[in-house]
Fold this sequence. Notes:
Elements: E1 3-4, H1 10-15, E2 21-26, H2 31-46, E3 52-57, H3 63-67, E4 75-80, E5 83-89, H4 94-105
Parallel strand pairs: 1-3, 2-3
Antiparallel strand pairs: 2-4, 4-5
Amino acid sequence: MAQEFTDGNFEEEVLKSETPVLVDFWAVWCGPCKMIGPIVEELATELDGKVKVGKMNVDENSNIPAKYGIRSIPTLLIFKDGEVVDKLVGAVPKNNIMSKLEPQMA
């Protein structure tokens, strides 16, 4: 299951993570977010131990989305060693997400 990231735990859970991290920036009212949600949950299960997968509700957390310039949702950011290494915007297919994650797991 995907973790819940917040303004409060982001540094510890994402920036200081030993493994790559996929962060799904979303909101309850966002249709495309609902489409990509099940894919994010699948990835959380499939990549357990290899990639940390989590979601951040942009309505409940404003500091981190603002810091990373999140203007459209869903936006997926991939972090490695505390830095953004890749970005996907919109309801993208699972294979697109995997193709961005695979190099980070190597």
